[in-house]
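Notes on consecutive records. When two proteins share a document, each keeps its own sequence and its own token line. Never mix them. Below: protein one.
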Amino acid sequence: MTAVRVLIVDDQEPFRRAAASVVGMTDPFELVGAVGSGEECLAVVPRLRPDLVLLDVGLPGIDGIETAARLRALLSPPVVILVSTHDEREFADGVARSGAAAYVTKSAFGPDRLAAVWALAGNSGGSRTVSGSSVS
């Protein structure tokens, strides 16, 4: 099975470490990098070429919604899953505007959720919900 290359983007080091642990224990995911801002994300994506970006909504500087929209404009954009501590309903419009494939609350993020959202993100033609995570 081909590895799914993952970039984590979050301004909180504890969540970057926790997400990296989840990615490391979940097949076929492979961590290729972790950065703390939207600006860093946009700078490293062309070099790292992740398949999946786990992107915090509330970043300083360029926020996650704008970063996701900029990623979607790339020639070969990665799949973007937005993450935050807030209820998904607060970001429904932002997810749609940004072109992100899904939104997952940080409290619900784990191996099963990562695998489920990835499975639907690549095969979904419309908006879906995975155990409280919106997937489009």
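Protein two starts on the next line and is unrelated to protein one.
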Amino acid sequence: MNAFTKVPPDMSIREDMLEAYRDFWSWLARPGTWWTGAERVAIAAEVRQARTCAFCAERKKALSPAMVQGEHDRASDLLPDIAVDAVHRIVTDATRLTQSWIEDNFSGDLTDGHYVELLGITVCVISVDQFNRALSLPPEPLPEPESGEPSRYRPAGAEHTIGYVPMLMEDKASDEDADIYPGGRAANVMRALSLVPDCVRQWQKISHVQYLPAEKIIQPDAETERALDRAQIELVAARVSSINECFY
């Protein structure tokens, strides 16, 4: 895929990062588990649109999101309203997402599988776009979607445990999905996307190059192979988490 190739001559970006981004862009364009390629690219477009959505800005300022009524500034009409609202809420007001809101979505036209895949795409697009924004680079043009139908694959061992959506616990993962938990262990941030294993795989590839490989996160003395040492990486991560109001 001819993406992430326009690197300014005065800027050095690790090739493994660019390869991870290209791999995600290629994956994004293809039919997924619950969404078509066109719908997945439309989700990515809504991720970007949400940042300038006037309705989202008004709702963010309100004491409760339910206090403000209106319509989103949408990127296209390809997605159902409930999916557009989910993307915009995740991007602009993630700290106020509730279990009741999740369950209301599932009682409508958005299944738990559709939601988890939408969430995985949103998280990865934000991660890539923020990288470009931090370097004052323009957003990468979204890929041309490929035709085809979603696989509708659902891990047999996924079940409701400690989260708002079904998750695949390590001891319930089949041989086909065991690779999403390197070393056989996982944090909830990985399990949260495990209803759609391919989302975990893509998220891990980006996390690997932007942060650390999953198996090294629990090893405080592991070599980072980065310009920053582990203490510096965690300091930056903690500061970003604080700014983002991440309860972890």
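For the record: The two ends are 36 Å apart (CA to CA).
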